[in-house]
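Box S1 | Example of a co-folding query
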Amino acid sequence: MTATPQHGFRALTGMRDVLAPESSRRRALVDTFARAAQAAGYHEVLLPLVEDLGVFLRVGEATDVVTKEMYDFVDKDGTRIALRPEMTAGSVRALVQHKPLLPWKIWYSGSNFRHERPQKGRYRSFDQVGVEVFGVDDADLDVEVIALAWRFYEMLGLRQVRLLINSLGEHDDRERYTEAVRVYLESRRGELSEKAIETLGRNPLRVLDSKRPQDQAVVIDAPKVADHLSDEAAEHFARVRAGLDALAIPYTLEDRLVRGLDYYRRTTFEFVADALDAAQNAVGGGGRYDRLAEDMGGAPTDGIGFALGVDRILLACDAEGAFPAPQPTMDAFVVDMVGGDAARDLTHALRSAGMSADRRFGGGSMKSQMKSADRSGARFALLVGSDEAESNEVTVRDLRGGGEQRRVPQSELIDDLRNHL
Ligand code: AMP
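Box S1 (continued) | Returned holo structure for adenosine monophosphate
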């Protein structure tokens, strides 16, 4: 057993507890996403938090997420496993394992883990909501998926989110393009930051993402992916753009949007929140990918998806004054001045009848019990004093509006409340 530190244990670096009312806000956010996704025919999938390390290696051998930031360890039986850093890999693993009927349209929500340097908007444990669709190679699906994320941001009340899109072309286009970028960056190697030079060796396209001014001065003249698209990929991208236009979803074409994973092809997109600091303003992203199912031993299957960062979306909501935490609500709060039997029995009866009800333990003055009633967000206070107890009645006080009150026989209480709620 390890010793308890002097000031008690604290959550690990980059990991946070979420308490009420923020926890209610998160739940409401996920519920909102669930509504948007289910309204578009997506079904929820619950995936394990840990997978065989190989599942994640397949997805991003050249990415920081996988090479440096993974929480991987050896399990008791010697298997190398890892906490999920994202949910696409697990989704593809599940696709290959269960062979569901295609198209398979799924949504998910949950925590992911990356050993990053924590700062505002960047944590080691963070939540995402997202979707994946397998088995459809149609540009209109790209539009559907993007529109779903867009609608979700709108439902939250966010007004300062921008959509950036790009096409990386087919696998071969991407390879040719990567090579062109590599040759170009090598020719200007001396001007790049040390970090960029290191990335260049592993994943040249990732250098295009660099936010350092020194690198950006070089990146600005890099070859453009649009000049490397095959006819087929260009046509697909034109149809995606036409679809977004038709749905009146504004977007910016962003040449530099390559995203981290090797498997992206054709459409890639990102959502940025202008209300957040530029360093941490990506509130979601996604794109089409191929070969993942094959790499995990399945049949070749088209895939597209996105993941949206819940923590950052909530920061953007704070910055825009959108999607506040829901107020606590309660149907009734029992204020028992005669020893506690009424509080015990009435809360139970009300809950059994499907209403929400709470009480205070340990009694206390009428004033302090009424304070608790107010804090609970209760619509009605149910007062039981000696008078009421004697006549088997309850005084029902409306805590909203004018504070009217009425005396109701206990036997009629549930019907009475139902009529007034
Ligand atoms: P990614 O899987 O890297 O494409 O990330 C998708 C979204 O998840 C990003 O746009 C962010 O909103 C969010 N995200 C990624 N990493 C973190 C992190 N370490 N902390 C908080 N949010 C994150």
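The first strand starts at residue 43 and ends at 44. The chain has two domains: 22-170+230-320, 330-420.
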